[in-house]
UniProtKB/TrEMBL annotation, chain A:
Heterotrimer of A, B and C subunits. The lineage of its organism: Bacteria, Bacillati, Actinomycetota, Actinomycetes, Geodermatophilales. It comes from Geodermatophilus amargosae. GO terms for biological process: glutaminyl-tRNAGln biosynthesis via transamidation; regulation of translational fidelity; translation. GO terms for molecular function: asparaginyl-tRNA synthase (glutamine-hydrolyzing) activity; ATP binding; glutaminyl-tRNA synthase (glutamine-hydrolyzing) activity; transferase activity. It catalyses: L-aspartyl-tRNA(Asn) + L-glutamine + ATP + H2O = L-asparaginyl-tRNA(Asn) + L-glutamate + ADP + phosphate + 2 H(+); L-glutamyl-tRNA(Gln) + L-glutamine + ATP + H2O = L-glutaminyl-tRNA(Gln) + L-glutamate + ADP + phosphate + H(+). This is Aspartyl/glutamyl-tRNA(Asn/Gln) amidotransferase subunit C. Its EC number is 6.3.5.-. It is an enzyme of class 6 (ligase). Belongs to the GatC family.
TrEMBL record, chain B:
This is Glutamyl-tRNA(Gln) amidotransferase subunit A. Coiled coil: none annotated. The gene is gatA. Belongs to the amidase family. GatA subfamily. It catalyses: L-glutamyl-tRNA(Gln) + L-glutamine + ATP + H2O = L-glutaminyl-tRNA(Gln) + L-glutamate + ADP + phosphate + H(+). The keyword Translocase does not apply. GO terms for cellular component: glutamyl-tRNA(Gln) amidotransferase complex. It comes from the Bacteria.
Length: 109, 497
C-alpha cells in the first residue's frame, strides 16, 4: 500500500501482500488460495467504492449516524447481571468461574 | 377449516378468537408443513417444535388466543438472540451457541403471546443478497426452487412465502428485508432507524441495522411492526417516541383513496435517469404501479436525487468498516467455537485460526475491506468521504420531501436470479442493493410491496418516507395491494392446486 489514492487515478491496487497485512491486522489467518482469490475480488470492489471520491464534498459535514442523538443517559440503577454459570456455559473453555484463554504473553516476555 | 397455513394473520386472529381453531392447531399446521417442505426449501436453521406446541398449549389454556397476536406463530431470522435457543447469525463461528438472553423484539413477541416456530436462515452476519453466504444450507425461492430467495433475510422470506410461517422478522442493513420480500412476493418494511430496538440483534453495521416485519399482506406486516416497535432503554440509539400507528395507516390505505398524496418517482432509481442493470419487466411493473397510484388520486411527479448514484460505493465502505469493528468480538474466547487451542499457540494465533475457520469468504472480504478503509492514510479518502456522501444523500431526501410526501422506485432492479449465478462476483451481488441503499444510509423508512410478476417471478415496489413517517409507507402499500386484488402469494397456492 505504497501509493496514495487520488481522485483522478482511482484506487491503488490491493496486492497479495496488502491483503495479508490487512488480514493480520484483523486477526484473520488466510490461506494462500484465499489470498489469490481476495486480491482479484477486492481489487474490483475497491475500484467501485473509490467512486465516492467523485463527489464534490469538500466542506460537507460527515454523517456518522442517521439520527442525531447525543449523550443518551439512563438513571443509575443497579440491576442484576446475567448469572455467571449461564454465561460461562456458552464459553469454549472455562475454569474456576472464569473464561480460560490461551497464553497471552510470549516465552520471552 | 381451510388450510391454516394459507390464512393471513388477520384471519387467523378471527378464527382463534371465535374458537373455530386453537393455537395448538395453528402451530401444528405450520410445523407439519415445515416437516414436509423445509428439507427442500431450507428456510429454517432451527425449528423449536416442542417448545412451540407447549407455548401454544399455554396460550389456549389461558384463553387469550386471538387477542392481539396471542397464539399466532412467528419465525425469527437467526440474527436475533433467543435465550436457550441456538443462534448462529448464519455463521460457523457461533455453531452450538445458546444465548443467555433474548433480544428485546423477541421478548416483546413472546410477551404478546406469539409462538416461536424457529430461527430462519440468512447470509452469514447478514452480509449478502441471496442467503447463499449462509454457512449452513441453501435456501430456495418458493416461486422457483432453482432461484435465490433474496437476502440476507432469505430464510424468513422463503418461510413466509412458502407458508412455513404466517409472518417473520428480518433485519435490513442495506436492503435485507425489502429485497428478499420483493423477490418472493411479500411485504417487507424497514422501519425508521432507531424506531425498533436493536438490543440483542447481532450487530453487522450498527448505524444501519434495523429490524422489521415480513408478511404476505400489508396489514399482517403492520400488526407485527406495532408488536416490536417503540422505545427500548437498552438500546441507546432507540428513539424515545410513541409506537408508530402503522395498523391504522394500513387500514386507511386499503380504502384505496390517495387523493392529495404527492408521490415522487426517483429519477436515478428506475426513473428516466436509471442506469443499466434493470430488468425490462421490473421497469414495466414499476410503471404500472405508478399509474395505479395516479389512478388512486395521487399527484405523481419526477424527483431527482443525484447523490443516490453514489449510495452503493458509500454503503460498501461504511458497512464493511463498521463490520470490521463489530466482528472483532468473535474471537473464540467468550462464546462460539475456538480453533487450535492445543497449548502450543498463543492467544493471537488461536484468535486468527478461529476466525479463519469460523468466517466464510464474504465476511472475510468485508473485514479486510473495512480494515483497509479505516487505515491511517486511507481513512479520509474512503471512510471519511463515504460519510460525506451519506450527508449528501440525506440532503437529497430532505429536498425531495419538501415537495413530495413519499418517494417510489423498484425495490430490486431484477427478479430472483438462479442459485449460484453471482456467488463468485461480489460486485454483481452488491448491485442487487442499488435501490434500497439510499433509505438505509439516510435512516428513513421504506417498504416493499408486491406489484406484479415478471417472467413469472415477483416484482416489488419500494415506497420511502421521511423519518418517523412509516405510516405513509403502509398507507401507500395498502392502496397498491387493494388495487391489485388478492395477495401475490395466493398465486403460489393456485399453482400448487
Amino acid at each position: 500500500m505504497s501509493t496514495e489514492p487520488t481522485p483522478d487515478r482511482g484506487a491503488p491496487a490491493l496486492g497479495r501482500q496488502d491483503i495479508a497485512h490487512l488480514a493480520r491486522l484483523a486477526r484473520l489467518a488466510v490461506t494462500d488460495e484465499e489470498l489469490d482469490r481476495f486480491a482479484g475480488q477486492l481489487g474490483a470492489v475497491l475500484d467501485a467504492v473509490a467512486q465516492v471520491q467523485r463527489a464534490d464534498a469538500g466542506d460537507v459535514v460527515p454523517t456518522t449516524h442517521a439520527v442525531p442523538l447525543t449523550n443518551v443517559l439512563r438513571t443509575d440503577v443497579v440491576t442484576p447481571s446475567l448469572p455467571r454459570d449461564v454465561v460461562l456455559a456458552g464459553a469454549p473453555a472455562a475454569d474456576e468461574d472464569r473464561f480460560r484463554v490461551p497464553r497471552i504473553l510470549g516465552e520471552e516476555e | 377449516m381451510s388450510d391454516l397455513t394459507a390464512l393471513p394473520v388477520t384471519e387467523l386472529q378471527a378464527a382463534l378468537a371465535s374458537g373455530e381453531t386453537s393455537a395448538v392447531e395453528v402451530t401444528r399446521a405450520h410445523l407439519d408443513r415445515i416437516a414436509t417442505e423445509d428439507g427442500d426449501l431450507g428456510a429454517y436453521l432451527h425449528v423449536t417444535a416442542d417448545a412451540a406446541l407447549q407455548r401454544a398449549g399455554e396460550i389456549d389454556a389461558a384463553g387469550t388466543a386471538g387477542t392481539g397476536l396471542a397464539g399466532i406463530p412467528v419465525a425469527l431470522k437467526d440474527v436475533f438472540v433467543t435465550e436457550g435457543v441456538p443462534t448462529t447469525s448464519g455463521s460457523r463461528i457461533l455453531e452450538g451457541w445458546r444465548p443467555p438472553y433474548s433480544a428485546t423484539v423477541a421478548s416483546r413477541l413472546h410477551d404478546a403471546g406469539t409462538v416461536l416456530l424457529g430461527k430462519t436462515n440468512m447470509d452469514e452476519f447478514a452480509m449478502g443478497s441471496s442467503t447463499e453466504n449462509s454457512a449452513y444450507r441453501v435456501t430456495r425461492n418458493p416461486w422457483d426452487r432453482d432461484r435465490i430467495p433474496g437476502g440476507s433475510s432469505g430464510g424468513s422470506s422463503a418461510a413466509v412465502a412458502g407458508r412455513l410461517a404466517p409472518f417473520a422478522l428480518g433485519t435490513d442493513t442495506g436492503g435485507s428485508i425489502r429485497q428478499p420480500a420483493a423477490v418472493t412476493g411479500l411485504v417487507g418494511h424497514k422501519p425508521t432507524y432507531g424506531s425498533v430496538s436493536r438490543y440483542g440483534l447481532i450487530a453487522f453495521s450498527s448505524s444501519l441495522d434495523q429490524a422489521g416485519p415480513m408478511a404476505r399482506t400489508v396489514m399482517d406486516a403492520a400488526l407485527l411492526h406495532e408488536a416490536i416497535g417503540g422505545h427500548d432503554p437498552r438500546d441507546s440509539t432507540s428513539i424515545d417516541t410513541r409506537v408508530l400507528a402503522v395498523v391504522e395507516a394500513a387500514r386507511r390505505g386499503a380504502g384505496g383513496d390517495l387523493s392529495g398524496l404527492r408521490v415522487g418517482v426517483v429519477r436515478e432509481l428506475g426513473g428516466e435517469g436509471a442506469g443499466e442493470g434493470y430488468d425490462t419487466g421490473v421497469l414495466e411493473r414499476f410503471a404500472e404501479a405508478v399509474a395505479l397510484l395516479e389512478a388512486a388520486g395521487a399527484d405523481v411527479r419526477e424527483v431527482s436525487c443525484p447523490a443516490f448514484d453514489l449510495a452503493l460505493p458509500a454503503y460498501y465502505l461504511i458497512a464493511p468498516s463498521e463490520a470490521s469493528s463489530n466482528l472483532a468480538r468473535f474471537e473464540g474466547m467468550r462464546f462460539g467455537i475456538r480453533v487450535g487451542d492445543d497449548g502450543s499457540r498463543d492467544i493471537d494465533e488461536v484468535m486468527a485460526l478461529t476466525r479463519e475457520q469460523g468466517f466464510g469468504p464474504e465476511v472475510k472480504r468485508r473485514i479486510i475491506l473495512g480494515t483497509y478503509a479505516l487505515s491511517a492514510g486511507y481513512y479520509d479518502a474512503y471512510y471519511g468521504q463515504a460519510q460525506k456522501v451519506r450527508t449528501l444523500i440525506s440532503r437529497d431526501f430532505s429536498a425531495a420531501f419538501d415537495g413530495v410526501d413519499v418517494l417510489v422506485s423498484p425495490t430490486s432492479p431484477t427478479v430472483a436470479w438462479p442459485i449460484g449465478a453471482r456467488v463468485d462476483d461480489p460486485l454483481a451481488m452488491y448491485a442487487a442493493d442499488l435501490c434500497t441503499l439510499p433509505a438505509s444510509l439516510a435512516g428513513v423508512p421504506a417498504i416493499s410491496v408486491p406489484c406484479g410478476l415478471s417472467e413469472g417471478l415477483p416484482v416489488g415496489l419500494q415506497v420511502m418516507a421521511p423519518a418517523l413517517a412509516d405510516d405513509r409507507c403502509y398507507r401507500v402499500a395498502a392502496a397498491v395491494e387493494a388495487a391489485l386484488g388478492a395477495p401475490l402469494t395466493d398465486r403460489l397456492l393456485e399453482r400448487a392446486a
